[in-house]
UniProtKB/TrEMBL annotation, chain B:
Family matches, as Pfam families: Cupin_7 (PF12973)
Alphabetized NCBIfam families for the sequence: anti_sig_ChrR
SUPFAM superfamilies: RmlC-like cupins (SSF51182)
InterPro entries reported for this sequence: Anti-sigma_ChrR, Anti_sigma_zinc_sf, ChrR-like_cupin_dom, RmlC-like_jellyroll, RmlC_Cupin_sf
Domain ChrR-like cupin positions: 100-193
Organismal lineage: Bacteria, Pseudomonadati, Pseudomonadota, Gammaproteobacteria, Cellvibrionales
Database matches in CDD domains: cupin_ChrR
Protein name per the record: ChrR family anti-sigma-E factor
Length: 206, 214
């Protein structure tokens, strides 16, 4: 009897709204293995999955020449800071994204350091989500779970605008020129896409 | 709680890491004071995580996992083992003394004093400063060539378009001519970032944009 109820509660836990799907949970478990046991096999899986995606990010962002350097910097941070990751605050891919973004900014800042004595560290301007600095809620996590599907439901022209601005690190002027649309139209598409994503996420949270 | 926020496109650019560093400082200072925008930022970061997860993987050429780990083992752990900050952090903390009174303000008029941070944050075409306006005083009417972003750190002010309090994030561009007046009860202290952006379109210079726009 007792066993059945444990199983049942596990099943309910797995399928309750606001919990994560198996794939999301898999990365959380692997990163915990790294944090608590310095588990190299777990880290190998994380590395094999994320390193090629970080490389793709670097190439999209126009830092192809330093792409492998970026991959190494990010994976070093992941290995060394795994204990700072809190699964209640962000998915593993979001956490790794914020580290990647910051390392890319660091690379660009280092390249321009002659121009100025810079006294603010990148991490002071862009915080990595961790305990105490992040508003955590169940909604945020279920939001994460549905985002990938929601993005694919955006009208194509909005999805392209979001990807170019968000993922290719381009200025609005550049993206507008590439798409051959006025700046105002681009901003309109970005605003619409953000509204749509929010509506889709909220609908799914109910 | 703050009533005026960066618009969602500004937050999106910030989250993507494509906003200029000076503007990012203004956003980060606002985030420090605004839980609502921190919540919105989490969603935007999650968008970044999702796009990262969805991207087409590219082969890492330089080394495989085992080589990577060998290199890592050979590297000494840095003294600060991580750059990941754990506490909610005021990005002005290391730039300013502990209290506003201890700042070496430079008087501009009898009502306005300034502390210039441009040298510490650098760059051409951008100005970053703290401004202190005496309670109840009026700033002469002005407009801007570029975009002016103001984040209120203490006190408040009003202008032709609204009344602003601690934490508020206020943006004015060249089309606005305004006459800010500090609220009566206390001095108004704010961070102002003046940005006259330079945009390059061709590939190579695009790389330099983040600091060219400082």
């Amino acid at each position: 009897m007792a066993q059945t109820s444990v199983i049942r509660s596990k099943v309910r836990h797995m399928s309750a709204p606001g919990t994560r799907d198996q794939d999301t949970q898999k990365w959380v478990d692997l990163l915990h293995q790294v944090a608590h046991h310095r588990d190299r096999e777990a880290f190998r899986q994380i590395y094999d999955h994320f390193a090629p995606r970080i490389k793709a990010y670097a190439m999209n962002q126009g830092v192809s020449q330093q792409a492998d350097e970026l991959v190494q910097e990010v994976m070093t941070s992941v290995w060394r800071s795994a204990d700072k990751y809190a699964d209640s605050l962000a998915s593993v891919s979001t956490w790794i994204f914020t580290i990647t973004r910051n390392q890319r900014i660091d690379l660009l800042r280092k390249a321009g350091r002659m121009q100025a004595e810079i006294k603010v560290e990148t991490e002071e301007l862009w915080q990595i989500p961790s305990e105490d600095n992040t508003v955590s809620s169940i909604q945020q996590l279920s939001a994460q779970r549905h985002l990938s599907k929601s993005i694919s439901e955006l009208p194509e022209e909005q999805m392209i605008a979001v990807k170019k601005v968000y993922y290719e690190g381009k200025t609005h002027q550049e993206v507008a020129a590439e798409l051959n649309i006025p700046l105002g139209t681009l901003k309109g598409r970005l605003r619409l896409s953000m509204q749509k994503l929010r509506v889709m996420l909220e609908a799914k949270e109910l | 709680m703050s009533g005026y926020h960066p618009d969602e496109i500004t937050l999106m650019d910030y989250s993507a890491g494509s906003l200029s560093l000076a503007q990012s400082l203004a956003v980060a200072v606002h985030l420090f004071m605004c839980g609502q925008c921190r919540g919105q930022l989490e969603q935007l970061n999650a968008l970044g995580g999702t796009l990262l997860a969805q991207s087409d993987p590219q082969a890492v050429e330089v080394q495989g996992f085992d080589d990577f780990m060998d290199t890592l083992d050979a590297k000494p752990e840095p003294q600060i083992t991580t750059k990941v900050q754990s506490r909610l952090y005021n990005p002005l903390q290391n730039l300013l003394p502990d209290s506003f009174d201890a700042i070496p303000w430079r008087k501009q008029t009898k009502d306005i004093a300034e502390y210039d941070l441009t040298k510490q944050l650098a760059g051409q075409g951008v100005r970053v400063a703290l401004q202190k306006i005496r309670a109840g005083a009026k700033v002469p009417p002005h407009s801007h060539r570029g975009q002016e972003t103001t984040v209120i750190l203490s006190g408040g002010f009003s202008d032709e378009l609204g009344v602003y309090h601690k934490g508020d994030f206020v943006t004015r561009d060249a089309s606005h001519r305004h006459t800010p007046t500090a609220l009566q009860n206390e001095d108004c202290i704010c961070l102002t970032v003046l940005d006259a952006p330079i945009y390059f379109v061709s590939g190579f210079y695009r790389l330099l944009n983040p600091f060219m726009r400082w």
